[in-house]
Amino acid sequence: MTRIKFCKFISLFFLVLVWYVFSGLMNAPLILPFPHSVLFRLLELSVTAVFWKAFAFTFLRVIISFFISLVSGFLLGFFAADSKSFQAFLEFPLELLRTTPVIAVILPALFWFTSNTVPVFVAVIMCTPIIITASKNGFEHNTENIEKLFKAKSRGFTGFYAFRYIRLPCALPSLASGAESAFGLSWKVVAAGEVLSIPRYAAGSLMQKAQVHIESSDVLAITLALVIISYFFEKLLKLITVFILRDKTIQTDENNIEQTFSI
Predict the structure, then answer these.
(1) Which residues have CB under 8 Å from 54's CB, separation 6+?
(2) Mean pLDDT across the chain, nearest whole number?
(3) Which pLDDT band holds residue 257 (cuts at 50, 70, 90)?
(4) How far apart are CA 124 and CA 79, in angstroms?
(5) pTM for the full model?
(6) Cβ contacts of residue 235 below 8 Å, gap of 6+?
């Protein structure tokens, strides 16, 4: 573990070193400022109310879009796992969305929605397919699921109980992986949507305004803040999913089924 952490530190050090080298070679702080200049600018911005208000609204948009994607993707994936016809119906739209560039969704959305809604809409469109696929893969009747469902059915446990104590626990690892991927993508898509739609309060709007005024230090500082904050919340989500997956109440095997439904 110590060796892995050391390698990660070396990787970070190498990236910063490369940044310093290119900044020195260009010798143009207006285009590519040094890392320490960006860090100092980030510290200056972090003590302003506008900075945190913008990031609070960005975080709110990420949470809203992620929640909508999670719920809709969970339901659509669940129905797709149980219906080959519905799965075939969703196949083409999902493939289309997977191959569609984010910018191709943002630009039309600017005509349809307000600046505050565009980032949320685009994030939902881009992230929902990930949750749908994860949900479908988790709920599909694979060999393990069929065996457990057969054992439960032989004891008279069907419907909600089979879903709660067999299908859902079997699907949780796939759902957790999909949720982590979708949450990380939500930050990127929401930020991109904010840059183009320019809501009143948004981290992307701060970046856009800094870019217009050729303040490269501000652009990189805000970008660095986005990376740090999104990384922190992604790790937090991962810890939550690990805790859920380790919860003994969702672990399911034949003995747990008998204990749970014993009268």
Answers:
(1) 201, 202, 203, 205, 206
(2) 82
(3) very low
(4) 19
(5) 0.82
(6) none
